[in-house]
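Write out the 3D structure for:
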Amino acid sequence: MADYLVEPARIATTTATELVQRARLLRLIPGVGNSLGFARAQAREQLAEFGRSAFRALSCGVREQLPERGRLAAHLLPAALLPQDRLWLPADGPASRIPWEAAQDDAGDWICDDPALSLVHRTRWGAYEHTERVVAARPSVLVATAMPRGLPSANVELQRQQITALASRFEHARGMFQWSENRDLGVLRQEIAERRCTVLHVVAHGRPGKILWEDQDHAVRPYEAEEFCEQLAGLRLHLVVLSVCDSASPPLRGRSLAAVITDRIAHAVVGMRATLDESAAALFAHTFYETLLAHPGTSLDHMVHRGRQALRQASAEGSIDAVQWVLPTLVLRDAALRFTGRSQRPRAAPTAPEAARGGAAALRLPDGSRIPLVRARTMIGRSSTADVTLSSPSVRPFHAVIQATRTGYELRDLGFGSSAVNGVAAERAVLSDGDLLAFGSHLCRFVREERDE
């Protein structure tokens, strides 16, 4: 493993300014309304051009001594255990505003595609020892959310589904993920301490240098980064995962939320450069934690790498915005993290509770075909990753959930207000045999069949 210090002073000011402006247009950092982020063909071409410019600037920053990429490709060592070369950048200052993760070399290869090479941002730049901090492979993760309850969003539900699915597949994950209902930051701090959690996963809205936190009284407060950390003072966490818009982007004056949290309460933070959409956030969370559970001895670098890979694959398939994979950003205090321990074999996917399975349930489509509801929680949407995919422009990528309960089935709209039961708009409804369901303009019927005794 080798470490490469990127010296921002060696990067021309005009080059850095130009890269920031182009990053705004590409929606790689908080930008302007007419950004190119969702114009996929144009965005990909512009992203590649941006990447080549970023790579040349990085080369200047390390005195043309970038490691030779792909030199470990022939090794048989699992990717999770590869010794990693790291490019270290300051987490503060003008250079921290540039999404270096999008760098692409002259051969057309993305720098973040190599699992043996990692680009990390560091808050404590004075010490030059780059060691790895070894922590337990089975951390205790507390998931907290402060998403405004009156604002339509499927973010929390999607991430809950993905994380819950992991906890049911891996024996190692049993009891590892806990969900907090506390929105008072003082109470949340106490809960983290009492549960002895070492990882905090936060789902919320944000702005550069701020987090928008809705409290128990439905009041949304924009906490400055320092103020937010003051509310959680005294905690010593290994990792904070910020599923928070702009959490890794610094404001015009000041530091990013991720950098401040890393300095104050955690050894490492995974934040987002700009706005990660709901389906992308859920996919990243799933792959990130799946990597931890499936690969013994994995590093935090590799977990972020695998998450980016999943996002890039989804963008190539057209299911998410073309530039979303660049947004996850790793910020470390003074050393990398590696999780030790052994992995567990996946368990079978959960099925519906016994009471609900007493009468087999299905969705009957207009063409007469049936889709059995065999899972405890069935996600319905246009996305190919939903449990039931409905190919209709009026259906959201993740539109609604049908939840099996001990007494039957319940429909939950994911906040978009375009689900209906028997012609009546429904945010939540208990389903009965024969109910006509509408997801956007897509119609289907919920049917139950009693089991033969």
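The radius of gyration is 23 Å.
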